[in-house]
Each structure stands twice: as structure tokens, then as C-alpha cells.
Amino acid sequence: MVRLVKHLFAVNPTKIYYRYVIRRQSSSDASKKEIDVRRIRNFSIVAHVDHGKSTLADRLLEITGVIKPGAERAQVLDQLQVERERGITVKAVTASLNYTYNNETYLLNLIDTPGHVDFANEVVRSVTACQGVIMLVDANEGIQAQTVAVHNLAKRNNLVIIPTLNKVDLPRANPDKVKKQLKQVFNIDENSVLSISAKKGWGVPELLQSVIERIPPPAVESEGHFRAHIIDTWHDKYRGVLCLAYIHSGRVQVGQAVKWSSDSKVNTVRHLALLRPDEEAIEEAVAGQVVMVGCGPKGGGGVGEQLLSKELAESGAVTGMPPVKHMVYAGIFPADQSQHAMVSDAIRKLALNDSAVSVSPDSSPALGQGWRIGFLGLLHLEVFTQRLLQEHKAEAILTAPSVPYKVKIKGAKLLKQYRTDVILITNPLQLPDPNNIEEYYEPFVLGTIITPVEFIGAVTTLCIDRRGAPLPSSAVDDQMTMLQFVLPLAEVVVDFHDTLKSITSGFASFDYQDNGFHPSPLVRMDILLNGSLVDELSTIVHASRLEYNARRLTEKLKAMIPRQMVQVAIQAVVGGKVYARETIKAYRKDVTAKLYGGDVTRRKKLLKQQAEGKKKMRSVANIKIPRDTFIDVLKKQ
Prior knowledge:
By secondary structure, the chain is an alpha+beta fold.
């Protein structure tokens, strides 16, 4: 070994000597600081939107020495540009912190999660790597709809919940009232609720001590075969796919042979690091830790997959996480077809980092080749397109969003074609002929609304107008009520949240969960321009909303499509029946303007020639919609 070092030292003394020292130091540190699983704590911060999760994460980073107190940059874990511009958390971010308590050093794996319902998938993945959560509740606003959702999620995963009131330093804070709400809704003992001010740091050290005392260490197998599941992935320009993994059993080292649960290929662990939140390279990680793993440019898996030791992978199959249920689908097309390859690469990399989206090829006669992408909601859709532009410089055109439907088909020929009697429809153009459809199914959600009692009537009216079915309500306290409705997803994703905030002066909060598909009278509405079908404007609507949607869309098209040399008839059609029509008048040329007298037959002759010319033009003309106008119609539909 000495000769080898001397030989390499002669070749490149500075570089090789530096590498040798670092490797030797790392291995000695690993032997001296063997991590005791009993001193590992994995926990997440969960809460409703704007209840102070990222601010609390900043205070925890300060207490553990990761950042200096009073750092200029707030919300350190919100690293994306879109997060800073919108003031929301989009990605769950991990930070491994060292903290000394009672003369013992603990490893705290903190995961800061989003609060908006559109990013609930990030929270679901995060809690799979935790044994407990800090449930933050704003001491001014009290329990909100997302608070109920994250509490139920934590209970389903058998996690320890540390209820914590934040913003107790504000003048309007009412901790006693909110504690009673927690008792009323969740049956939480008021004495177990902590009170903090994440902004000023009040009570945060005590909260950190409660994390160590209340949350148990991970129940893992330290001596078994290596097995970890992936909770996040992202792409690095030089190192390829990097994964955030929670280790269930065994240990992993740099250079170890591993396999993905979905692939038979053997990979080698090339990169191993703790996120503090910046990367800190390590040589070995043990069960119970949350670590970053990289297997090189060609060795990447997906979120929900498992990373296994070679021996365990060859012994049998393992299961992954359940698939994500997408709520909204939209078409994304490059602004210029010459940029198709660049936009495709950008979408692939972003989809790797955002596992909640689904991507499939799509095409349009007007917009060219593109993709049909599934999202968890409209905010998710907006953030995805904004990240495309900011992080990858990819300009994309977004079509009108739609929700997925299901249809039950009949006929042996179609059954043989689809191999099932119920098919999922993410694009109206995929609908079979109505004569071959036995029944339509529409997606519904279970909506939870927490509102002041004085707005119960307005909220109930709104939900019933949106075809909602009420469920039993319950009181949060003497001023707030929790209402629940089963609502069609199509009525929720567009403007329901904005309307709810408007009629309740901003005091109501809304959260929804998937409630499956239910039979519903649906029809496909097509748009014809002078008798020609425009594929991109076809929609699936409820029968009770057919006339309203037909009038609204035809009027909008009339306002946006420019006048042509011929008259343009805009028709909303269902099954050959016209439900709404608007007409765009043609440009008119006064062919008799040059006449200043003479016989009337001359005037009649010119008008007859003009009429014959227009008739011939109508028979051969194609209605050309300028691309920009067509895009505006799709986006504002």
C-alpha cells in the first residue's frame, strides 16, 4: 500500500495526496462515529398553507448550527425560484441535523413539506420516511381544512403527532381557543399542545427537545440486507439521476452493488451524501437514515421504487408505492416545433423531479406534436409550466385543462380493442362513438370546508350550484363550522376556490380528497366552424350544463376569431344537434360605389357577380384561425 501511494504521489503529488488523506479520514470518522439507530429521529413539519412551516425550519437550522441567526435569506429550504416568487413550498426538502441533548448527539432528519392540496403527494411520500410529525396550527386562524387532511394522513401512517401552535406572539393570537378546537376536532389533550413563535424563536428549543422525547427511533433492521425506498429524485448535469432514499434495513457503502426493484441491471453506488441541506459526502449509511444516493448517469430509478442489495433483489420481488391519481390533464406544446427536442428533454428532467405528473405523447393539427400531462390540480399545473420556463428556458403552450373521465363500452369489437370494458378518457377526442358507450363515469371529490358560521348559507348555495351533495357537518367551535360535500371534480378545479374565498371574505379554507368515479350523464360537445370540426375545442360536459357551456364558448370564440373574407358560422354541436350558434360577418366590399348614375340593371349585375363570387369562395375556402388567437381560446376556455 505504501509503494502504491508513493508511485501515485510521484505522478500527481497534490491531487493524490489530498484524495488519500480524505479517504483515510472518512473511514476513521465512520468507525469512530458509528450511528446508533436509537439516536435517530425522522420527522416532518405539516400544516395548512402559510402557517409557518418554512420559518420554523429556519429556526431549527439555526439552533443546530447549520445557518447563522439573523441570516439575510429567509426560508432556506425553499430553494426553487417559483417558491420564492409565490411564497409557497412546492417541494419537500430534507435536512439532516446534529443536535446534542443530555450529552448525547442525535441525528435529526427534518423534512419540510408543502401545505397546498395540489402538492399533497409530496407530503404523502415524506411521511413514509418518518416516525412523527410536527403539526403546526396558526394561533390566529385556528384549524383549517388542510390541517384536518394532514392529521388524518399522520393517523393512517401511525405517526406520533406533536401539536404545536405557531405565531403566538401576534396581537390577535388566541392559543386557548385553538387548543379547544384541537380538543373538539381531534380529541388532542390541551396539555400536550406546545406554543411557539417560529419568527422570533420562542419555544423552538423546547419543541426540538419534544421531538427527541416523543418521537420514537425508526424501527429498522440494522443487520439485514440493504433495502431502501425512494422518496424523491432529481437530475444532475454531471452525475445523472440522484435519489433521496430512506433506508429500511442493512447499510450501504460507496462502491456497493445494488439493484432497482423494477430493473434487473446491477448498478454501483457512486455517490452517497447527507443533505444538511447542502450535500455532505459520506462513505456509509445505515438503516434509519435519509440519504442521497447516486448510481451514475445511467443508474437511476423512480419515486416509489426500492433500491436493494444485489442478494435481496435476486431473492424475490418487492412492492412499491401506490400510483398517483391525477386530477387534471392539459396539453403542452412547444411554442415552435423546432424546439420540440429541447422541450421534450426539459419535461423529462422536470418530471423526474416532480413524480406527481404523468407524461404521454399528444398531437394537434393546430399546435403540432406535444404531450398530454396529468397534474394534481391547477396550481400544480401552473407551477410546472413556470418551472419549465425558469429552470429549463423552455417556452410551452398550455391548452385548456380538463379532468379525466371513464366510460363503460359495449360491443365485442371494442372490448377486443381495449381489452377491458371500462376505459379512462384523458382527452375528449379519445371518446368512442356514443352508440358504443353503455355508461359514463365522472370523478368526484370529498371536499372539506371550514368556514365561519355566518357564511354557512352562502357556502352551501355555492356547493349545491356546483352539483354538490351535502354530508353531515360538525362544529369546530362556537364560531367555526366544518362542512363536507361530495363534489364533481370538474366543478372544483377551475374557479371554485376563488369563488369560495370571495363569498366568505377570505375566511373559509378548502381541501379535497379523491372520492372515486360515479355514473353521470355526460356528453361530448364539438365546435364547428362553417361545418368543419375543430378537434382542440371538443369538451366533455354534464348534460345539465350543456346549453350554458355552449353559449359561453361560442360567444368567446366570436370575440376572439378575426373576421374573414367569408361569413363564419360558429356552432356548438352534440350528436348532430346545434345548441348554440354565433356568426362572424364577412368583410363587405361596396362594388356599386363606382356607379354614379345610369340604369339600375348595372347595379343588379354587379351585386349578382359579387354574390356568385362569395358563394364560390364559401365552397372552397378554409377558415384559418391565427395561431395566437387559437391559443388564447384554448387557454381561456
